[in-house]
Amino acid sequence: MIQNTVNDWNAEDYAEHFSFVPDYGRDVIKLISGENLRVLDLGCGNGALTKVLAELGHDVQGMDSSDSQLALARRTCPGIKFIKADATDFHPDEQFDVVFSNAVLHWIDEDSQPDMMLCVRDCLKKGGQFVFEMGGYSNNRLIHAELERQFKKRGFNYEMPFYFPTIGQYSSLLEGTGLMAIYAHLFSRPTLLDGDDGLVQWMKMFVRKPFEGIDESTGDKIRRDAAETLKDKLFRDGKWYADYVRLRMKAIKI
User: Fold this and answer.
1) How many other C-beta atoms lie within 10 A of the C-beta of residue 113?
2) Is 227 exposed, middle or buried (0-12, 13-18, 19+ CB in 10 A)?
3) What is the SS3 assignment for 222?
4) What is the extent of the structural domain holding 188?
5) How far is CA 180 from each of CA 28, 117, 172, rounded to the nearest angstrom?
6) Which member of 41, 179, 183, 216 lies 3.0 to 4.6 Å from 50 by CB, making a disulfide possible if both were Cys?
7) Of 10-14, 38-42, 205-209, 238-242, which range is least confident?
8) How far apart are the C-alpha atoms of 196 and 224, rounded to whole Å?
9) How many domains is the chain built from?
10) Contact of 108 with 4, CB cutoff 8 Å
11) How far apart are CA 248 and CA 94, in angstroms?
């Protein structure tokens, strides 16, 4: 994760109930070209995908800003180096063949995206690969629209806490910082959530910033009312799904 968002998650709870995040990231790894590469896992979280990269033979290093996630990563991935740093302001002493990132970049606000990309560019070797997946245009549109409605009903302002770009928007940002997009795919991926209370727990874990300053009981009521309204669209065959849209891309340093 990055410093300008909430990063005090319970790492064990995240690993147990939201394992779909790194599980889906295994497909993103397939975009990496080459063997035995020097790889930086940007926003590595609990190290689940860092470990996969190492098992594939890459010389990998993980980077995150969450102390709890890094502590878990170090316990479960012995032999791998993990460092604490902000995704928008990091300057490793070495260069990498690949910067890899899964489900992290949408946490960075639009104005700070070029800062992150410049850091990525500077730590990549010439021709190096930037391989990532993030939330894309219309990601969780139903959920955020309903939360906005619930906030407005109570006199609160709902501020979108994420950046979900189109292919064109993100390609332009990349090229403006010396990274050329060579692959891009924007696709819908309804995502199964864990448990009977899956949508409420998902909102509690991932949608935190809009609830700052709202008392806990009111926040819980907002989440539960939103889930009840969304049930006919996101609850199927006894299971909750989130309306994910992902942007998967690969760029090279030019």
Assistant:
1) 21
2) buried
3) helix
4) 11-139+162-194+243-253
5) 18, 11, 9
6) 41
7) 10-14
8) 12
9) 1
10) yes
11) 26
